[in-house]
Amino acid sequence: IIVAIHGFGNIGRYALDAVLASPDCECIGVIRRSESVGKDAYALRGVPDYPSLDALLAAGSKPQVILVAAPSRKVPEDAAYYLEKGLHTVDSFDIHPEIPELVKKLDASCLKGKAVSITAAGWDPGTDSVFRAYFEAMAPAGTTFTNFGRGRSMGHSVAAREHKGVADATSITIPIGGGRHSRLVYVLLDKGADFETVRQAISEDPYFTKDPLEVREARTQAELDAVCDASHGVAMERVGASGQTSNQHLKFDMRINNPALTSQVMLACARACLKMPVGCHTLIDVPPVYLLPGERMDHIARLV
Q: Which residue of 39, 55, 160, 258 is 20 to 30 Å from 199, comparing CA positions?
């Protein structure tokens, strides 16, 4: 599977790790900002980087799938660009309420380019979405609670960094229980920035308006670095009924490195892109066997 990676931040770097560890995949290039091209030679490990898709194509390479490792707010534009050029895309868009509209938008781009998109392909949304679907299939009447953390949310951290006056930021998700969460955001301010102005702007950001929020100022980069490891996790449970039998209690729990797992799911979806029909899909649309390398009957014999 010939892939290229769009972006080389946290997700992009771990995506390259995942590709290099997968014998059925090859990365032919990283597409990134022109001012970054030529940097990070050690992290790229011999993979060439380019300022644009045109530059990559001019070098004589053509990917089958683009792993769009961009912040969620940039995914709609970035993914649509590649899809309309006939390239499959996988992204980890994570703004849950906007996913249905994004699926419609990217579906139109897929039809233009006769390509496949798998969007919201991380662990939540993504693989957790699949577990929620299985839980409902097993116990149709009931309630599922998804409790995230404790850990750093990449999407919320990026959203906090985008605000004027913020030099750097990290957002910690703290589970309250019953599927509710609070957000603890540490910000390192640009010189001369006013903390109260920054705090107010973050509190009005749609990423943060639905949850209790506390914003703290980090005085130095070292102070911020001390709280921004990549740990995260989820504890999901459903209490419900199968048929007319109640008290069915289903649980799923994991503790993970956030960007490493996200990028691994994206790479698994790159495999699925080559088997899915034209259009935009999410992970609940993808047969699980499509995510695995190798032959279907081998997986049936091993897993079923």
A: 258
